[in-house]
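User: I'm putting together a teaching handout on how multi-component assemblies are represented. Below are the sequence lines for each component of a complex, exactly as they appear in our records. Could you produce the 3D structure of the whole assembly as structure tokens, so the students can see both representations side by side? Please keep the chain order the same as the input.
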Amino acid sequence: VFTKFASSLAGPESTVRVSGDQMDWEAELVVVIGVGGRRIPTSTAWDHVAGLTVGQDLSDRTVQWWGPPAQFSLGKSFEGFAPVGPAVVTLDELSEDHNRDDLRIICAVQDAPDGEHRILQDGSTSSLIFPVPEIISRLSEIVELYPGDLIFSGTPAGVGMGLTPPQYLRAGQTLTTEIEGLGTIRQRLV
Amino acid sequence: VFTKFASSLAGPESTVRVSGDQMDWEAELVVVIGVGGRRIPTSTAWDHVAGLTVGQDLSDRTVQWWGPPAQFSLGKSFEGFAPVGPAVVTLDELSEDHNRDDLRIICAVQDAPDGEHRILQDGSTSSLIFPVPEIISRLSEIVELYPGDLIFSGTPAGVGMGLTPPQYLRAGQTLTTEIEGLGTIRQRLV
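Assistant: Of course. Below is the structure of the complete assembly, with chains in the same order as your input.
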């Protein structure tokens, strides 16, 4: 569990400054808490969710590995490193056509404004090591959740630091993050 | 840099549930931000400070060492694990009789309500590895600071996990944390 400081939040269509030569992507399902609480059991965890949205958990891996101990929270909290949106989709709206536990999640990059979309990540939220109810339950064992809290979940395979050789984001690229039923967010890197 | 989630905040006189058998103390000077900003130079950092107060950075070392990676932010964020107070002392008020860069900081424990105070930590804020202006400057290079933000600084030698053998807090004890010119906070452990 790591923190993205509130000052890193940004909207769905945004411009982000590349923080260094190891800026990485992580497409993530974001849970928006509607009803707060402590010690929420998994069986009722979904009742605490106002809705779901798309998030991009940008990280500076250079800063992340400062330490020891590692500095994940700082590395994830540069300005604009937590873009979310384009809307909070409520569970009833989502469930009309989709399974909230199995949503396709895709991250792609364009190297130039009119370039092709290279797929970086293509997975499903059904592969989360900790499914949403488990995340809510485990977090709320220690931390009280409040209405409006945003919980970034996990990311599919394909982040840059795991590639051989590693790949990172560069100025001039455009990153898109899409989740089935929730929409797309788009970050222009400068 | 680690996070204490907002839900761990508590007042100066409080009761805290012992989270397990490795709950540790860290007496800390807490900086209250008055004027926010990004990329604040050390030379003007004090101008961003509304005042100073006393904090106790309680940690559950068992949870902290979950992982890898380590889970400092969770370990520090149980309910009541961030008691602060008893007042925000402004810099002009403090400087009448004290040096803001050299404040004595003492942590003590009573094993029983009427027992003697055993000193656990006795140091000075002049020994901080990162002095206050440096903390503000380095943090604000990455994270935007907001008015009302609380920054826990560093702690003097003498935390429980560093002792031979290690010592931890137990139910029935009372922990007091005092900083010269700022006052005392007192936590009853149950």
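A couple of points students might notice: DSSP finds four helices and twelve strands in chain B. Residues 33 and 149 of chain B are 5 Å apart (CA to CA).
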